[in-house]
Amino acid sequence: MHAIQNLNHTLFLLVNAGATTPRWWIDLAVFVANDLVYGVPVLLIGLWLAGGSSRRGAALLAFAIAMIALGANQLIGLAWYQPRPFVIGLGHTWASHVPDASLPSDHLTLFTSIGLGLLLGGLKRVGAATLVVGLLVGWARVYVGLHFPLDMAGSLLVAAACSAVLVPLWRHVGAAVTTRAEATYRWLLARPITRGILRA
Fold first, then answer.
1. Sign of CA dihedral 59, 60, 64, 67
2. Can you tell me the distance from the alpha carbon of 48 to that of 13, in angstroms, rounded to the nearest whole number?
3. Residue among 114, 161, 118, 162 nearest 135 (CA)
4. Which residues, including other chains, have CB under 8 Å from residue 136's CB and lie 6 or more apart?
5. Do the beta carbons of residue 178 and residue 53 sit within 8 Å?
6. What is the mean pLDDT of the chain?
7. CB of 132 closer than 8 Å to CB of 143
8. By CB count within 10 A, which of 47, 105, 174, 194 is most buried?
9. Alpha-helical runs (H) found in 39-148
10. Do 47 and 56 meet the contact criterion of CB atoms below 8 Å apart?
């Protein structure tokens, strides 16, 4: 365990931005680390509003995987607290954050879960693009000093495990869940749908 921790610290110091890093580059990395995550709900809502049961089903699958994976992260953090780099005074920290558990990263878990859900739900290009953006976010969060590299490996494992559990189940219940969700959506937003503002 000590050797793994040393490796984690060494890798972190190799990636973490130093004192001589240009400020504009730090600002860009902080934006990637903290703000790209807001695009995830926009993506899912956009896929839903675009219409089509297959597209909506993939969005629901991705959302379900993400919620389960984020819940698993909370349990892992409670069972095994791994302090963040700035808590132990390691490296440079370029963004503020509460000193909660570092392992796994919720940001990368979210992106990976959504990406895998869309990919396995049939939206291969969107899913692959989401995974690539997620990797950039994961790198940025190490770069600005909020996470260790192995936190990101943990996130990938959590998302992959939750996908492996949920996708086979979704093959049996996904169509019914999607149909029920679409019916609820059409009932709640019947007026804008009737007026052609939203797709049915």
1. positive
2. 41
3. 114
4. 32, 36
5. yes
6. 96
7. no
8. 105
9. 39-50, 53-79, 106-120, 124-143
10. yes
Query: What count of other Cβ atoms lies within 10 Å of the Cβ of residue 135?
Result: 16
Residues 84-138 pLDDT 10s: 999 999 999 999 999 999 999 999 999 999 999 999 999 999 999 999 999 999 9
DSSP 102: -
Which tokens go with 153? Answer: 């490996």
Q: How many Å separate Cα 139 from the centre of its chain?
A: 13
Question: How many residues does the structure list for the chain?
Answer: 200
64: CB partners within 8 A, 6+ apart: 117, 166, 170
CA distance 29 to 35: 10
State the amino acid at position 61 in one-letter form: L
CA-based radius of gyration for the chain: 19
Q: Helix, strand, coil shares of the chain as percentages rounded to 5?
A: 75, 0, 25
- What is the number of alpha carbons within 13 Å of residue 168 lying toward its C-beta? 5
Residue reference for tokens 């219409």: 51
Listed in sequence order, the residues at least 6 apart from 27 whose beta carbon sits closer than 8 Å to its beta carbon are none
The burial of 20, by beta-carbon neighbours within 10 Å (0-12 exposed, 13-18 middle, 19 or more buried), is given as exposed
Residue labelled with tokens 């790209």:
36
Q: Please report, for the chain, the start and end positions of each structural domain, with discontinuous segments joined by +.
A: 32-194
Asked whether the bond before 85 is cis by omega within 30 degrees of 0, the reply is: no
